[in-house]
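User: Fold this; tokens only.

Assistant: Input:
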Amino acid sequence: MKKLSLLSILCLLLGAFSCSQQNSDDLSTPAFANLGDVDHFVFGTYYGHCLGNCTHTFNLKAGGLFADKVERGYPEPGMDFEDKSLSKADIELATKLLADFPAELYKEEGETLGCPDCADQGGFYLEIQVGKSAPRVWRIDTDDSRLPAYLSAYTAKVRKVVEELEK
């Protein structure tokens, strides 16, 4: 009887550890469990006064990661994105960026931090919608001296991810 119990326990353990977690592009995956019910996450950079494609924003949502259709101007809620998702590797980059989203940003009263693009230095755009609530939007200066200390490391990550996605 003792051998049968040990064998049963062994089988249960093997069965539990042999299951692999399935990767999914759905925002309800365990990677987002600590982020609540995220509907979408838009992030990127923009430059208002330049030539060429100066707006580089991406929308991470269930179904994938989508590049914007905006070439010039400032990003806004409701802007258009491509219909075809970027690669799984790109989705993973964006997912990590969302996982690192600073909770302190929600405590900021306004949507503008610093003076983004006031001196043609560009800005960062962040938009996140959790559940059925209205999306929160932030326009953030690229000059770290005008930002709260907690935000500088995150905007550096945003810049790096955008540069990777633009390659």
